[in-house]
Amino acid sequence: MTIKFLNKLILLSALLCMGASYAADTSTDTAGQYVDDATITTRVKAAFAEDKDVKGREISVRTDQGVVDLTGKVQTKTESDRATVLATQVKAVKAVHNNITTSTN
After folding, report:
1. How many separate domains does the chain show?
2. Is 20 helix (H, G, I), strand (E, B) or coil?
3. pTM for the complete prediction?
4. What is the spatial distance between Cα 66 and Cα 20, in angstroms, rounded to a whole number?
5. Burial label, 85 (beta-carbon count in 10 A; 0-12, 13-18, 19+)
6. pLDDT at residue 55 tops 50
7. Please, where are the H alpha helices in 1-105?
8. The domain that contains 77 carries what CATH number?
9. Between residues 20 and 82, the one the model is more confident about
10. Dihedral pair phi/psi, residue 83, rounded to 5°
11. Is 100 exposed, middle or buried (0-12, 13-18, 19+ CB in 10 A)?
12. Is 11 domain-assigned?
C-alpha cells in the first residue's frame, strides 16, 4: 500500500513540475495563436499557388500574431505588389510587410 502511494506521489510531483516549467515560458504566443498564425501562413501560400501572376516558389511567408512578413525574390515589382494584395485578402491578416526584392534590384 505504501509503495502505491509513493508511486502516485512521485507521478503527481513530476506532473506538477512539468506544469510549473511550462507556466514559466515567457513567449507571447499561446498555442491558439501559434495555430492561427500557421493557418494564415498556409492560406497565404495557397493563395500564391492558385494565382497565375504570383509564382510563390521564391516567396517566404512568416506570420506572427496576424502580421505577415513576405521575403524572397521575384521577377517583377508587379508580382511583388500582387503578393501583397493576395496576402492582405487572407482572413485574419492584420498587416503585411513586403520585403520581397525583384530581379532588377
Report:
1. 1
2. helix
3. 0.67
4. 28
5. middle
6. yes
7. 2-23, 31-50, 77-88
8. 3.30.1340.30
9. 82
10. -60, -40
11. buried
12. no
Eight-state DSSP code of residue 105: -
Write b or e for each residue in 63-76: b if 16 or more Cβ atoms lie within 10 A of its Cβ, otherwise e: beeeebbbebebee
Q: Which domain holds residue 34?
A: 30-102
Q: Kindly report the CA angle at 91 between 89 and 92, in degrees rounded to 5?
A: 120
Contacts for 98 with CB less than 8 Å, ≥ 6 apart: 70, 80, 81, 83, 84
Give residues with Cβ within 8 angstroms of 60, minimum separation 6: 70, 71, 72
The Cβ of residue 58 has, within 10 Å, a number of other Cβ atoms equal to 14
- How many residues in total does the chain contain? 105
Question: Is a pLDDT exceeding 50 seen at residue 88?
Answer: yes
